[in-house]
Amino acid sequence: MPHIAVIGAGPGGLLLARVLHLYGIEAVVYEREASPTARTQGGMLDLHTDTGQRALREAGLEAEFLTMARREGQDHRLLDHTGTVLLRQDTPDDAPMDRPEVDRADLRAILLGSLPPTAVAWDHGLERAEPLPGGRHRLHFTGGRTAECDLLVGADGANSRVRPLVTDARPTPLGAHVVELGIPGLVRTRPDLAALVGRGNYWAFGPGRSLSAQLGGDGRLRVYLTFHGPEDWPATCGIPFEDPARARPLLRERFADWAAEFTDLIDACDGALTVRSLSTLPVGLTWAHVPGVTLLGDAAHLMPPAGEGANAALLDGAELGLALAADPDAPDAAAHRYERAMFPRAREAARRSARIHEILMSPDAAHRLVAILQPA
């Protein structure tokens, strides 16, 4: 049986490994992180019925997902920077689970728990992949370790080490920079702010920046401050992000002309701080098939964060896994079929994400979002 190597233990890579495991096909997921708890996994994901949830159904994990999914995470509160509420949508208790939220950490735990312990090789950062005859590859990892595979799957995200094997495309900056802060135990420690932000998505928009917040299943409110600026904005804005205690008051100053409820949120945050600059691959990226290698998720179609990326990655993993299960003795042919189906699907998801990002970056973002969320 061919050896399949998956680079990256994100949602798409783990979902692929799970589907292969269901069909008795061995694969090893190589992950740069030292362990499952090496770092926090970020906030919430809304999984859509026809993509992310479909992938979990194919993987036999729908029941586990539904026990952790939060129907109330589908709520929306949308404001402008003066504090005026433009839209409030509260999800009824019997509403369909069309786009429920799930903690990234919980989703990862479901996926890891569905695999044998030997399925993931932790502390294996890929340095390079060396092509061998017949479409095989020799993988070179940190520490001098190596492995060989018949099919190499790049599920290693925006800065994929596998992507250069199939395309010269590189991510380009989107001019948006997200600073993540947080309030632990929100409902217990700050019930006033909990009532303000609600159970689901809380968004506020002003000139050149926005604030959003989301309550996780672990009780932590994640607060996201998004600034518009050039690629080097994190280094040139004058905020010492390496020192959260000094950075937070300066971030607060950037919102001093906003309603007090927004600065109250920033003031209540703890010391944790993360900065991410957003980037994207070209919409509709394709490549001529390269024997023995393929991509999924952000490695294949990095797009702006608009609720599409993780769903697309999960469905990539399911569809590639099913293609390999249907033709286990010809993994390269299966990967080629997967690519032909994935390209148009990913193109449409990327188009939707690019459109939402354009709206979020526009001066009248709040009112344009109202028209989308509450059409006439």
Structure description:
By secondary structure, this protein is of the alpha/beta class. The protein has 13 helices and 17 strands. It folds into 2 domains: 4-71 and 101-170 and 281-360, FAD/NAD(P)-binding domain (3-Layer(bba) Sandwich), CATH 3.50.50.60; 173-279, D-Amino Acid Oxidase, Chain A, domain 2. The strands form 4 sheets. It has a 7-stranded mixed beta sheet with strand order 5-4-13-14-15-12-16, with helices on both faces. The protein has a 5-stranded parallel beta sheet with strand order 7-2-1-11-17, covered by helices on one side. β1 (4-7), α1 (11-22) and β2 (27-30) form a beta-alpha-beta unit. Belongs to the aromatic-ring hydroxylase family. TetX subfamily.
Entry summary:
The protein has 376 residues and is an alpha/beta fold.
Describe the structure using short key phrases:
single chain; 376 residues; alpha/beta; FAD/NAD(P)-binding domain; seven-stranded mixed β-sheet; five-stranded parallel β-sheet; globular; cytoplasm; flavoprotein; nucleotide-binding; FAD/NAD-bd_sf; FAD-bd
Q: Uncertain regions: pLDDT < 50 for 5+ in a row?
A: none
Strand order of the largest sheet: 5-4-13-14-15-12-16
Total DSSP helices: 13
Q: CA-to-CA gap between the ends? A: 56 Å
Count of distinct structural domains: 2
Strand content: 15-25%
Q: What is the top-level CATH class of the largest domain? A: Alpha Beta
Order of helices and strands: EHEEHHEEEHEEEEEEHHEEEHHHEEHHHH
User: Structural class of the secondary structure composition?
Assistant: alpha/beta
In CATH, the homologous superfamily of the largest domain goes by the name FAD/NAD(P)-binding domain
